[in-house]
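Hi,

I'm pasting everything inline rather than attaching a file, because the server keeps stripping attachments. The sequence lines come first, and each chain or strand is labelled.
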Amino acid sequence: MKRQIPVLLVFVFGVFMIFQYFSPHEYSEWIYKFLMDWIYIIGIFAMALGIWSLIHVSYDKIKNKRHDWGYSVVTLAALFIMMFFGITGFDENGEWGFYFMTQEGLTNPMFRNFFNHILVPIETTMFSLLAFFISSAAYRAFRARNVLATMLLVSALVVMLRFNPYFGEAVGLYMNKIAAWLLNVPNMAAKRAILIGIGLGMVGTALKVVLGIERGYMGKG
Amino acid sequence: MEFGTFLWTTLGAVLTLAIFSFLYKDNPFYKFAEHLVVGVSAGYWAVILWHNGLVPNLLERLRDGDWYLGWLNSSKPWYLIPAILGLLMWTRFSKKYSWISRWPISMYIGIATGVAIPLEMSNRVNKQLYAAMSKIHWDNFFGHGFLDTAAAYSEIIIIIGTIAGLIYFFFSKAHTGAFGTIAKIGIYILMIGFGASFGLTVMARISLFIQRIQFMHEDWAVVAFEETNPNYGWFQFFFWLVGFIIIAYIARELYVYIKNRDKQMVKPS
Amino acid sequence: MNQNTNIFNKMMSMDRRWVFLLLIIVCVAAYFAPFSIPILIEPEVERVYNFVDTLAPGSIVFLAIDYDPASLAELHPMTYVLLEQCFRRNIRVICTALHPNGPSMAENAFLEVVDSCKVDKTYHGKQFMGREVVNGIDYCFLGYKPYPALVILGMGTNFRLPFPADYYGRPIDSIPMMKGIQNYDQVACVVNISGTSGTEYWISYGQGRFGFPLALGVTGVMGAEYYPYLNSGQIFGYMAGMLGAAQYEKLAENDGKAVVAMKVQLFAHFLIIFFIIIGNIGFFMDKFSKKREGR
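And the predicted assembly:
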């Protein structure tokens, strides 16, 4: 029962959705609408699991005084402060209060400040570190070891230099044309091959899931 | 700009520098900022899920019912079903009942895969195959101008490239003979594709850094030097305070470095 | 061992922090240097601009903002310039943000563009008077829902299905501009500005199922991936990375952060190419000397 019912559910809903795509009858449309409407709600609960996990892991780290547990306090404090600002705010009359069922929290200046001046700078900067790591990798790793690696390098160089105006206007135009051709012809062919492959792979896996051959989503137990 | 907003921007600038300090070496400032953003991000997400998800899609719909006699008095009681299914997801945290969480998960998986099969097949596979099989314009073999993407030779390269790429990737037959030649063309084409991706990735990464320079200059430093600001002196004070902290940190690191170097020199070899 | 190989070997084993420092110096110097570079317009970007520019006033553009702060650098300029173009031309906008950290990104873009639309401006010789762009009349921001693929599908039936209320909690039916707007049929085009795999969903589950005209604005990392869709006609236009954003800014005669960034970008690219060349010279010198020693 623990394994059969889920497989049956996947099969029934999967087959129904395929059927609905090919035969959009009034009744099947009606069920389709209900299912869609419900799945968003189920999804919200599922997403909340992730947040709970984070709380759980951080709490565990603090409780057992694991290495660097102090930082977990920062994480948890930030999480709860953000939640607090998200459910408090000012109504039209400028009155402060808790607003659970209306969205005053989303326009709370502190909620916005935390997003704009903490989350945005940290996240953008963290990803901008990649600029440095890619330049260091360019220095150490990108070698024209053989024909294949050389092709990769040349193609990358052309794409990187395509908007360069310093070799004269004519050369610039040619560079741009070469890059455009490279992106639209060989690159496109390569990406199309990958795309078709991924598409077929996805459909294959999806079929295996619907038919109950692939059951990885159930986990152990 | 209001002074309060400037203080927030200053905080943003300090956090930016805290993250950049990782380039020198891992340090507590970086770790602090890293853990801070995880918390803020999760908190933000929780709020968005609540206000943009649970409230409008579930609670508002059940709200018109009588809260005291139970939600079933609501005009849309059927919304309790997804709510219960959603709650069942949370049995994952119990060792004994975690199998129940498979029901809502399998409902979602069933719907998602069922939807995916025809759509992925049609839009990722079929439409790309149609496009690959389009007519070659032989009358325009050399095209107009230098490297014309619409010329017949480009179209031929696209067709051959696609087939060769597919062959390289998907056939487990040994790559020998004529088959091997096609597979070899395939990998060349793929390499050009990966090269283009790499070139664009470099551009992407660099632009992230440029944006941070723009932020530090336009949104923070320039604002700090706007004399029209009401509390100009305070703007300046905080700007130089941050500057002082950076210089002090660099000086400290230099001091530690020199001290260690002296010690190493003293050490007998 | 060869003297030259020694130098290159030394360079290879150099602390990578010197490489970082060099990149910082080059980028900051290029940023402050007073010059600009010409930006060549590519047809795939121009098609997006022309499509939006030839829409009748009052038409609706659906803007799907699926990115978080991590891809803000490249995608925010696209969003800003596109929104300003729409609002100046009295084109209405419906917007969703299907990335969990996306809603505030979209909100920020709206708030700032609404501000900048209050001022008179001239684009392409045509003067646009400043006006008050009103939430609910000129634009509707629907907000976030989980599972982008299913949300995109659901909106094809009715926007109200996944979004009974907008981001600010107002029921959709109470929003003036949403009167009579049911689904993608009433929308002139969808522009997906994205830093996630949500783009695939917009192509397969949105355009593929409902057939609306779709244009993409993506990050550079994803930049080379979507050319097959352009070729097959599944998308009508395409902006990739900072260069795509800069091209759009040039087209709209509304130079912003992307155009400025491109000059810095160019010199950063020069530097990286220089690194690659130096690295390769070292590699070949090493290979050459090993060969000679072997002989």
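Chain C has a mean pLDDT of 92.

If the labels don't parse on your end, tell me and I'll reformat.
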